[in-house]
Amino acid sequence: MSAPGGGVGTGTRASGLAAGVAAYAAWGMFPLFFGLLASAGAVEVLAHRMLWTLVAMLGVAALTGRLSRLRGLSVRTTAMVVAAAVSISINWGVYIYGVTSGQVVESALGYFVNPLVAVVLGLVVLRERITRWQAVAVALGAAAVVVLTVDYGRPPWIALILAVSFGIYGLVKKTIPLDPVTSLTAEGIVTAPFAIGYLVWLAVVGQSTFASDGPGHAALLVASGVVTAVPLLLFGFAAQRLPLVTLGIIQYLNPAMQMTWGVVLLHEDMPGSRWIGFGLIWLALLVFTVDAVRRVRRSRRGALAPVG
């Protein structure tokens, strides 16, 4: 229900905020869930995640009457679905590898960096203009990557691939002419043949863990579909009800939880130089967020200013 004057009602914003926090908190718990599947290997987990997410989304699409929207997609829309499917598959696969190989902190870094990558993609691909403070934030982010490259002795590939792949996914999702449920279901249809083919091959050569590691393990692999789909649907619900600035601020809950998991519970190594790199990222995000909030406030004051 809208508030008087066409704004978003308080109740609607509250429900959107609850959904957004729930989505990012669920993503923040992913290291716990996917860490339980380490015995399967990253590629097998990815294949199961693709398959069971499609099953879950087909159920949601059927319940919401969206299955018919999957027919007759244009060539352009189909190409966008394929691009989204490829980018999110890379993101999922690298993330699962990062978690199951004990590199949760670097995986969390990818989602801290993601907002800055989104700005760069908007500049390069969409020819969007960036503000001076956005440019400062991106420069700080680049400096952080340099510091972390020196610290790790290599570029932080897991973080960079996660940030760029999710940035590309967000770019496609921003312009694709499909609602979130239809789009995610269509992406699953694209990836399902590859996932099923790989799982069948694993079973044939006797390397599948689905049946060999017990019913609990099999149940967790099946549950990966619901675990993936629910936060995405909550996020879609929140995105329709919250200002982008609010959504942008609460997104940091996800990597903050993941980093806490890696440092506090898994005791991953965090030398001083690595903290400096993360500190530069957090400073960049602070500059980026404050600039976004100030621009929204200026825009609102301009909209409320008397005309004439």
UniProtKB/TrEMBL annotation:
Keywords: Cell membrane, Membrane, Transmembrane, Transmembrane helix, Transport. The keyword Ribonucleoprotein does not apply. It comes from the Bacteria. It is found in: Cell membrane. The chain crosses the membrane at residues 21-43, 49-67, 79-97, 109-126, 133-150, 156-172, 184-204, 216-237, 244-263, 275-293. It is a multi-pass membrane protein. Residues 15-149, 158-288 form the EamA domain. Its main location: membrane. Belongs to the EamA transporter family. PANTHER family: EAMA DOMAIN-CONTAINING PROTEIN, INNER MEMBRANE TRANSPORTER. This is EamA family transporter RarD. It comes from Rhodococcus gannanensis. The gene is rarD.
